[in-house]
Amino acid sequence: MPLAFSDFPNTRVVLDCTEIRIQKSSKLKAQRQTFSAYKHFNTFKALVGVTPDGYICFVPELWGGHVSDTEIVQKSNLLDHLQPGDGVMVDKGFRLDTIFPPTIKVYIPPFKMGSQLSAGDVIATRKIAGARIHVERVIRRIKEFHFLDRPVPITMLDIASKIFRTCAFLCNLQQPIISVKDN
């Protein structure tokens, strides 16, 4: 287990979502389903699960950009792959405490109560951020594939999930994100 996870030894997966731009549909319903209020254009949203060692282990179907991170996790079959005692690390965009059973530990940065975080919450936030940086690096690596650096054409939307998944799992064949000295 990498050093960054020493305070989170039961972490099974680190989750994050990313968005890939798609061509705008001429159909209003499709536009609504794929419009991302965060990105301000039409997107597909991808959930990416990464092991503490930096390997991609979970990539479900893509979703329209309007769907929340929490909803994607809820509709994916991630829970089927977790066992009691496992830990899941996420960022503040995920509200998983309501959808996971109490036997699954959710590591999420503390939320600010009042004007500022307590000293303990600042330390907890730094530790989680230090561990979560690896999933962000993995997602950046996925997006380096040329197909994903421009809007996905309308004609390819039906196979976009397969293409994204292929790009993601090809990253596992590249140089590891976590170096030996990080372990």
TrEMBL record:
GO MF annotation, one: metal ion binding
Highest taxon of source: Eukaryota
Claim: Transcription regulation is one of the keywords in the record: no
Co-factor requirement: a divalent metal cation
Keywords for the protein's UniProt record, in alphabetical order: Metal-binding
Limits of the DDE Tnp4 domain: 15-172
Record's keyword annotation contains NAD: no
PANTHER family assigned to the protein according to its UniProt record, in alphabetical order: SI:CH211-262I1.5-RELATED, THAP DOMAIN PROTEIN
Protein's recorded name: THAP domain containing, apoptosis associated protein 2 family protein
Species of the source: Rhipicephalus zambeziensis
